[in-house]
């Protein structure tokens, strides 16, 4: 599947306008972002953030689909998202692009690439030398447990591992999401 770059550009322009943001005014940099989004969407079938590596597993990449879950909190705190694709008005007008630290949790990055987290000092390590136990533990860490979440402010419902950092509908914070616990019984 080949996507025209104009389709990608129109989509992010619309999203920026609807969110009250601007796109990076540096033409070459913006073009690189567009090409990255195009490449990722053609490769994976969804537009993974152009400044992060996707896995091709939608469940592992869900939080980094552009616009990623971290865009809005980054813009609130730094005036731009991690990639510097989306900007607020102040940064857009000054064209002074600040450095934005990675907000994506290290655990999610490690799980996406099936790597172990660096061990911190003073943490007791598992003493099990049984490879079967270690493999089972690693699989449990990498297992994605989706949940049903709803926004207590607007009612938006999403089925994923964690609620988004900010509700895409009403822009409330993650703390306003609650898990919906359901039980489905089938009868004959």
How many domains is the backbone divided into?
Answer: 2
Strand order of the largest sheet: 4-3-5
Topology as H/E string?
HEHHHEHHHEEE
CATH architecture of the largest domain: Alpha-Beta Complex
Estimated share of beta-strand residues: 5-15%
Shape: globular
CATH superfamily of the largest domain: Ferredoxin thioredoxin reductase catalytic beta subunit
Q: Please tell me how large the radius of gyration is.
A: 19 Å
Distance between the termini: 44 Å
Q: Please state the average pLDDT score.
A: 84
Helical amount among residues, as a percent range?
25-40%
Q: How would a crystallographer describe the biggest sheet?
A: 3 strands, antiparallel
Tell me the structural class: mainly alpha
Query: So what's the CATH class of the largest domain?
Result: Alpha Beta
Which stretches are low in confidence, meaning pLDDT under 50 for 5 or more residues running? 117-128
Q: How many beta-strand segments?
A: 5
CATH topology of the largest domain: Ferredoxin Thioredoxin Reductase
**Number of alpha- plus pi-helical segments:** 7
Secondary-structure map:
Elements: H1 5-19, E1 22-23, H2 27-44, H3 58-61, H4 71-78, E2 86-87, H5 89-94, H6 106-112, H7 131-142, E3 147-151, E4 157-160, E5 177-180
General description of the model:
By secondary structure, the protein is mainly α. The relative contact order is 0.10. The chain is built from 7 helices and 5 strands; from the N terminus they run αβαααβαααβββ. The protein has 2 domains: 1-114, Ferredoxin thioredoxin reductase catalytic beta subunit (Ferredoxin Thioredoxin Reductase); 143-188, Rubrerythrin, domain 2, CATH 2.20.28.10. Strands 4-3-5 form a 3-stranded antiparallel β-sheet, with no helix packed on it. It has a two-stranded antiparallel sheet with strand order 1-2. Strand 3 and strand 4 (157-160) form a beta hairpin.
